[in-house]
Specification:
Distance between the termini: 17 Å
Shape: rod-shaped
Radius of gyration: 18 Å
Largest sheet: none
Helix content: over 70%
Number of helices: 2
Number of strands: 0
Structural class: mainly alpha
Amino acid sequence: MISSTMPSLMATGLTGLRNGMTQLNRNAQAIAQANVSSSPQQSLTQSLVQMQAASQQVQASVAVVRTADQTLGLLVNTHA
């Protein structure tokens, strides 16, 4: 039962990591272009907040992947 959830946990973590990095890149571009926007202050603030949220998503996803990897390693070592 546990072994069947490991690939799912890993995939979930990797998907979260990919989505977070995409959002980080999108917001970094928005920040770089904020000075040409019609309301640069609002755009910059919103992009910075979203970038912080994406950073937290990436950190959480890395923790999921790391935990799944450690658990899988423990299972392999226990049953080997």
